[in-house]
Protein backbone atom coordinates (compact mmCIF):
# COMPACT_ATOMS: atom_id res chain seq x y z
CA UNK A 1 0.00 0.00 0.00
CA UNK A 2 1.26 3.48 -0.88
CA UNK A 3 1.31 5.65 2.22
CA UNK A 4 3.42 8.60 1.15
CA UNK A 5 0.52 10.99 0.44
CA UNK A 6 -0.48 11.52 4.09
CA UNK A 7 -0.19 15.18 5.07
CA UNK A 8 0.82 16.27 1.56
CA UNK A 9 -0.51 19.50 0.07
CA UNK A 10 -2.47 18.69 -3.09
CA UNK A 11 -4.18 20.87 -5.70
CA UNK A 12 -6.69 19.32 -8.10
CA UNK A 13 -8.08 21.61 -10.81
CA UNK A 14 -11.50 20.81 -12.27
CA UNK A 15 -12.34 18.93 -9.07
CA UNK A 16 -15.93 19.94 -8.35
CA UNK A 17 -17.15 16.91 -10.28
CA UNK A 18 -16.12 14.11 -12.62
CA UNK A 19 -12.58 12.81 -12.81
CA UNK A 20 -11.18 15.67 -10.71
CA UNK A 21 -13.59 14.84 -7.91
CA UNK A 22 -12.52 11.20 -8.17
CA UNK A 23 -8.86 12.20 -7.91
CA UNK A 24 -9.59 14.48 -4.93
CA UNK A 25 -11.55 11.68 -3.24
CA UNK A 26 -8.69 9.20 -3.53
CA UNK A 27 -6.09 11.71 -2.28
CA UNK A 28 -8.31 12.64 0.69
CA UNK A 29 -8.81 8.96 1.49
CA UNK A 30 -5.01 8.61 1.66
CA UNK A 31 -4.53 11.57 3.98
CA UNK A 32 -3.74 14.35 1.48
CA UNK A 33 -4.79 17.95 2.20
CA UNK A 34 -6.63 18.82 -0.98
CA UNK A 35 -7.58 22.11 -2.65
CA UNK A 36 -10.68 21.36 -4.75
CA UNK A 37 -10.70 23.87 -7.61
CA UNK A 38 -13.34 24.90 -10.15
CA UNK A 39 -14.68 28.18 -11.51
CA UNK A 40 -17.90 27.77 -9.54
CA UNK A 41 -17.18 28.36 -5.82
CA UNK A 42 -20.47 26.84 -4.64
CA UNK A 43 -19.78 23.59 -6.50
CA UNK A 44 -16.13 23.46 -5.36
CA UNK A 45 -17.24 23.97 -1.75
CA UNK A 46 -20.03 21.41 -2.06
CA UNK A 47 -17.50 18.82 -3.23
CA UNK A 48 -15.01 19.78 -0.49
CA UNK A 49 -17.80 19.59 2.12
CA UNK A 50 -18.71 16.08 0.98
CA UNK A 51 -15.05 15.03 1.22
CA UNK A 52 -14.77 16.53 4.73
CA UNK A 53 -17.91 14.70 5.87
CA UNK A 54 -16.18 11.49 4.75
CA UNK A 55 -13.16 12.32 6.91
CA UNK A 56 -10.99 14.08 4.31
CA UNK A 57 -9.12 17.40 4.56
CA UNK A 58 -10.51 19.41 1.64
CA UNK A 59 -10.93 23.10 0.80
CA UNK A 60 -13.14 24.44 -1.98
CA UNK A 61 -11.56 27.19 -4.08
CA UNK A 62 -12.74 29.16 -7.12
CA UNK A 63 -10.22 29.77 -9.89
CA UNK A 64 -10.18 29.69 -13.69
CA UNK A 65 -7.28 27.78 -15.23
CA UNK A 66 -7.28 30.12 -18.25
CA UNK A 67 -6.12 33.00 -16.01
CA UNK A 68 -2.52 33.28 -14.80
CA UNK A 69 -3.70 35.68 -12.07
CA UNK A 70 -6.18 33.07 -10.82
CA UNK A 71 -3.54 30.34 -10.92
CA UNK A 72 -1.06 32.46 -8.95
CA UNK A 73 -3.74 33.38 -6.40
CA UNK A 74 -4.61 29.68 -6.09
CA UNK A 75 -0.97 28.64 -5.62
CA UNK A 76 -0.42 31.30 -2.93
CA UNK A 77 -3.62 30.33 -1.11
CA UNK A 78 -2.83 26.59 -1.12
CA UNK A 79 0.79 27.18 -0.09
CA UNK A 80 -0.17 29.46 2.77
CA UNK A 81 -2.97 27.13 3.98
CA UNK A 82 -0.86 23.96 3.87
CA UNK A 83 2.74 25.18 4.16
CA UNK A 84 3.60 24.57 0.50
CA UNK A 85 2.48 22.57 -2.51
CA UNK A 86 3.59 18.97 -3.07
CA UNK A 87 1.24 17.70 -5.76
CA UNK A 88 -0.55 19.41 -8.64
CA UNK A 89 -3.16 17.47 -10.57
CA UNK A 90 -3.85 19.64 -13.63
CA UNK A 91 -7.14 18.06 -14.61
CA UNK A 92 -9.57 20.83 -15.66
CA UNK A 93 -10.76 20.35 -19.21
CA UNK A 94 -13.69 20.82 -21.55
CA UNK A 95 -14.78 18.73 -24.53
CA UNK A 96 -17.49 20.44 -26.61
CA UNK A 97 -18.05 18.38 -29.76
CA UNK A 98 -17.92 20.08 -33.19
CA UNK A 99 -16.77 18.84 -36.57
CA UNK A 100 -14.11 20.91 -38.32
CA UNK A 101 -16.65 22.34 -40.78
CA UNK A 102 -18.74 23.68 -37.87
CA UNK A 103 -15.90 24.48 -35.45
CA UNK A 104 -15.43 28.22 -35.03
CA UNK A 105 -11.98 29.74 -34.41
CA UNK A 106 -13.32 31.07 -31.09
CA UNK A 107 -14.41 27.59 -29.98
CA UNK A 108 -10.97 26.26 -30.97
CA UNK A 109 -9.32 28.98 -28.85
CA UNK A 110 -11.57 28.29 -25.85
CA UNK A 111 -10.68 24.58 -25.81
CA UNK A 112 -6.96 25.31 -26.27
CA UNK A 113 -7.06 28.00 -23.55
CA UNK A 114 -8.63 25.62 -21.04
CA UNK A 115 -7.05 22.26 -21.78
CA UNK A 116 -3.56 23.14 -23.00
CA UNK A 117 -2.71 26.67 -21.88
CA UNK A 118 -4.63 26.01 -18.64
CA UNK A 119 -2.34 23.09 -17.80
CA UNK A 120 0.73 25.23 -18.54
CA UNK A 121 -0.56 28.10 -16.37
CA UNK A 122 -1.30 25.80 -13.44
CA UNK A 123 2.17 24.26 -13.67
CA UNK A 124 3.85 27.67 -14.01
CA UNK A 125 2.05 29.13 -10.99
CA UNK A 126 2.67 26.11 -8.75
CA UNK A 127 6.27 25.52 -9.81
CA UNK A 128 7.96 27.87 -7.28
CA UNK A 129 6.28 25.88 -4.49
CA UNK A 130 6.70 22.42 -6.05
CA UNK A 131 10.45 23.09 -6.33
CA UNK A 132 10.62 23.46 -2.55
CA UNK A 133 8.87 20.16 -1.89
CA UNK A 134 10.82 16.95 -1.32
CA UNK A 135 8.07 15.19 -3.27
CA UNK A 136 7.13 17.59 -6.07
CA UNK A 137 4.68 15.87 -8.43
CA UNK A 138 2.61 17.01 -11.39
CA UNK A 139 -0.06 14.76 -12.87
CA UNK A 140 -1.79 15.88 -16.07
CA UNK A 141 -5.16 14.50 -17.16
CA UNK A 142 -4.72 14.01 -20.90
CA UNK A 143 -6.86 11.51 -22.85
CA UNK A 144 -6.60 8.60 -25.27
CA UNK A 145 -8.34 10.99 -27.72
CA UNK A 146 -5.57 12.85 -29.51
CA UNK A 147 -2.42 11.09 -28.31
CA UNK A 148 -3.64 7.65 -29.50
CA UNK A 149 -7.11 7.75 -31.05
CA UNK A 150 -9.41 10.11 -32.94
CA UNK A 151 -13.14 10.74 -32.81
CA UNK A 152 -15.26 12.91 -35.16
CA UNK A 153 -15.98 16.26 -33.53
CA UNK A 154 -12.94 16.32 -31.32
CA UNK A 155 -10.11 17.57 -33.54
CA UNK A 156 -9.58 20.60 -31.29
CA UNK A 157 -9.85 18.53 -28.12
CA UNK A 158 -7.49 15.84 -29.44
CA UNK A 159 -4.97 18.50 -30.42
CA UNK A 160 -4.94 19.86 -26.85
CA UNK A 161 -4.60 16.43 -25.28
CA UNK A 162 -1.70 15.49 -27.59
CA UNK A 163 -0.23 18.95 -26.97
CA UNK A 164 -0.22 18.32 -23.23
CA UNK A 165 2.15 15.40 -23.82
CA UNK A 166 4.52 17.54 -25.88
CA UNK A 167 4.54 20.09 -23.06
CA UNK A 168 5.11 17.33 -20.50
CA UNK A 169 8.14 15.83 -22.22
CA UNK A 170 10.13 19.06 -22.19
CA UNK A 171 8.80 19.99 -18.75
CA UNK A 172 10.01 16.65 -17.37
CA UNK A 173 13.56 17.53 -18.43
CA UNK A 174 13.39 21.13 -17.17
CA UNK A 175 11.94 20.13 -13.79
CA UNK A 176 14.13 17.09 -13.15
CA UNK A 177 16.85 19.15 -11.48
CA UNK A 178 14.34 20.18 -8.82
CA UNK A 179 13.26 16.59 -8.22
CA UNK A 180 9.81 17.45 -9.60
CA UNK A 181 8.22 14.75 -11.78
CA UNK A 182 5.49 15.29 -14.36
CA UNK A 183 3.45 12.49 -15.87
CA UNK A 184 0.12 12.14 -17.64
CA UNK A 185 -2.89 9.88 -17.36
CA UNK A 186 -4.72 9.03 -20.58
CA UNK A 187 -8.25 8.05 -19.58
CA UNK A 188 -10.57 6.24 -21.94
CA UNK A 189 -14.29 6.71 -21.42
CA UNK A 190 -14.88 7.47 -17.77
CA UNK A 191 -18.40 7.86 -16.44
CA UNK A 192 -18.60 11.51 -15.38
CA UNK A 193 -21.19 14.26 -15.54
CA UNK A 194 -19.41 15.56 -18.65
CA UNK A 195 -19.57 12.16 -20.35
CA UNK A 196 -23.18 11.58 -19.22
CA UNK A 197 -24.10 14.74 -21.15
CA UNK A 198 -23.08 12.93 -24.37
CA UNK A 199 -26.12 10.67 -23.92
CA UNK A 200 -26.91 7.00 -23.13
CA UNK A 201 -26.26 5.77 -26.69
CA UNK A 202 -22.70 7.13 -26.61
CA UNK A 203 -22.13 5.46 -23.24
CA UNK A 204 -23.54 2.14 -24.45
CA UNK A 205 -21.39 2.05 -27.57
CA UNK A 206 -18.26 3.02 -25.64
CA UNK A 207 -18.82 0.29 -23.04
CA UNK A 208 -19.39 -2.21 -25.87
CA UNK A 209 -16.10 -1.25 -27.54
CA UNK A 210 -14.09 -1.74 -24.34
CA UNK A 211 -12.61 -5.21 -23.66
CA UNK A 212 -13.31 -4.93 -19.92
CA UNK A 213 -16.95 -4.30 -20.89
CA UNK A 214 -17.66 -1.18 -18.87
CA UNK A 215 -16.94 2.52 -18.71
CA UNK A 216 -14.24 3.54 -16.25
CA UNK A 217 -14.96 5.08 -12.86
CA UNK A 218 -13.48 8.34 -11.66
CA UNK A 219 -11.74 6.37 -8.94
CA UNK A 220 -9.97 4.21 -11.56
CA UNK A 221 -8.27 7.45 -12.67
CA UNK A 222 -7.78 8.63 -9.07
CA UNK A 223 -5.72 5.56 -8.20
CA UNK A 224 -3.43 6.09 -11.20
CA UNK A 225 -2.91 9.70 -10.08
CA UNK A 226 -2.22 8.54 -6.53
CA UNK A 227 0.49 6.19 -7.74
CA UNK A 228 2.17 8.81 -9.93
CA UNK A 229 2.12 11.25 -7.00
CA UNK A 230 3.57 8.80 -4.51
CA UNK A 231 7.13 8.78 -3.25
CA UNK A 232 7.40 5.28 -4.67
CA UNK A 233 6.89 6.66 -8.22
CA UNK A 234 9.73 9.15 -7.81
CA UNK A 235 11.84 7.68 -10.64
CA UNK A 236 9.05 7.95 -13.23
CA UNK A 237 8.84 11.19 -15.21
CA UNK A 238 7.64 12.30 -18.63
CA UNK A 239 5.53 9.14 -18.99
CA UNK A 240 1.93 8.21 -19.68
CA UNK A 241 -0.47 5.69 -18.17
CA UNK A 242 -3.50 4.65 -20.21
CA UNK A 243 -6.57 3.98 -18.03
CA UNK A 244 -9.13 2.73 -20.54
CA UNK A 245 -10.20 -0.85 -19.82
CA UNK A 246 -8.25 -1.93 -22.90
CA UNK A 247 -10.29 0.25 -25.26
CA UNK A 248 -7.40 1.16 -27.56
CA UNK A 249 -6.24 -2.44 -28.01
CA UNK A 250 -8.61 -4.29 -30.41
CA UNK A 251 -7.32 -3.77 -33.95
CA UNK A 252 -10.80 -4.26 -35.43
CA UNK A 253 -14.42 -4.77 -34.41
CA UNK A 254 -13.86 -8.42 -35.27
CA UNK A 255 -11.07 -8.65 -32.70
CA UNK A 256 -13.62 -7.74 -30.03
CA UNK A 257 -16.37 -9.94 -31.48
CA UNK A 258 -14.08 -13.00 -31.51
CA UNK A 259 -13.15 -12.51 -27.86
P1 LIG B 1 -16.50 17.29 -16.18
O1 LIG B 1 -17.30 16.23 -15.50
O2 LIG B 1 -17.17 18.16 -17.21
O3 LIG B 1 -15.81 18.22 -15.08
C1 LIG B 1 -14.95 19.25 -15.48
C2 LIG B 1 -14.42 19.98 -14.27
O4 LIG B 1 -13.51 21.01 -14.73
C3 LIG B 1 -15.49 20.70 -13.48
O5 LIG B 1 -15.11 20.71 -12.11
C4 LIG B 1 -15.45 22.12 -14.04
O6 LIG B 1 -16.00 23.05 -13.10
C5 LIG B 1 -13.95 22.28 -14.23
N1 LIG B 1 -13.54 23.32 -15.19
C6 LIG B 1 -13.92 23.46 -16.49
N2 LIG B 1 -13.34 24.55 -17.02
C7 LIG B 1 -12.55 25.10 -16.04
C8 LIG B 1 -11.72 26.23 -15.98
N3 LIG B 1 -11.55 27.06 -17.03
N4 LIG B 1 -11.07 26.50 -14.82
C9 LIG B 1 -11.23 25.69 -13.74
N5 LIG B 1 -12.01 24.61 -13.74
C10 LIG B 1 -12.68 24.31 -14.88
O7 LIG B 1 -15.26 16.65 -16.95
P2 LIG B 1 -14.53 15.23 -16.76
O8 LIG B 1 -15.19 14.28 -17.67
O9 LIG B 1 -14.37 14.90 -15.34
O10 LIG B 1 -13.10 15.58 -17.40
C11 LIG B 1 -12.01 16.00 -16.58
C12 LIG B 1 -10.72 15.88 -17.36
O11 LIG B 1 -10.58 14.55 -17.82
C13 LIG B 1 -10.68 16.77 -18.60
O12 LIG B 1 -9.38 17.27 -18.78
C14 LIG B 1 -11.04 15.81 -19.71
O13 LIG B 1 -10.52 16.23 -20.94
C15 LIG B 1 -10.37 14.54 -19.21
N6 LIG B 1 -10.91 13.31 -19.78
C16 LIG B 1 -12.20 12.92 -19.51
C17 LIG B 1 -12.66 11.72 -20.03
C18 LIG B 1 -14.04 11.19 -19.72
O14 LIG B 1 -14.38 10.12 -20.22
N7 LIG B 1 -14.84 11.86 -18.91
C19 LIG B 1 -11.83 10.94 -20.84
C20 LIG B 1 -10.53 11.38 -21.10
C21 LIG B 1 -10.08 12.57 -20.55
P3 LIG B 1 -16.51 24.54 -13.54
O15 LIG B 1 -17.25 24.37 -14.84
O16 LIG B 1 -17.34 25.02 -12.40
O17 LIG B 1 -15.26 25.36 -13.68
Determine Rg (CA atoms, Å): 18 Å
Please tell me what the overall shape is.
Answer: globular
Q: What is the mean predicted local confidence, pLDDT? A: 96
CATH superfamily: NAD(P)-binding Rossmann-like Domain
SS elements, strand count:
7
Spatial order of strands in the largest sheet: 3-2-1-4-5-6-7
CATH topology: Rossmann fold
Record the SSE blueprint.
Layout: E1 9-13, H1 18-29, E2 33-38, H2 41-53, E3 57-62, H3 68-82, E4 87-90, H4 105-130, E5 137-141, H5 155-176, E6 181-187, H6 193-196, H7 200-208, H8 218-229, E7 240-243, H9 253-257
Helix pairs in contact: 1-8, 3-4, 4-5
Bound molecules: NADP nicotinamide-adenine-dinucleotide phosphate.
How would you characterize the overall build of this protein?
This protein is of the alpha/beta class. It has a single domain (9-242), classed as Rossmann fold. It has nine helices and seven strands. It has helices at residues 18-29, 41-53, 68-82, 105-130, 155-176, 193-196, 200-208, 218-229, 253-257; strands at residues 9-13, 33-38, 57-62, 87-90, 137-141, 181-187, 240-243. A seven-stranded parallel beta sheet has the order 3-2-1-4-5-6-7, with helices on both faces. It is globular. 46% of the residues are buried. The mean pLDDT is 96. Residues 13-20, 38-40, 43, 64-66, 91-95, 114, 118, 141, 143, 187, 189-190, 192-195 line the site of NADP nicotinamide-adenine-dinucleotide phosphate (NAP).
Amino acid sequence: MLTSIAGRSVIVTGASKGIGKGIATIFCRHGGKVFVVSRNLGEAEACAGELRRNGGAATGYAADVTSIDDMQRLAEAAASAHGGIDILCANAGIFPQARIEDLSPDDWDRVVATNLKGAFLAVKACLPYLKKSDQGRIVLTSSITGPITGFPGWSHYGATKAGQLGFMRTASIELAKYGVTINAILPGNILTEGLAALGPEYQRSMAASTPLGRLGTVEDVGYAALFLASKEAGYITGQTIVVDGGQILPESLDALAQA
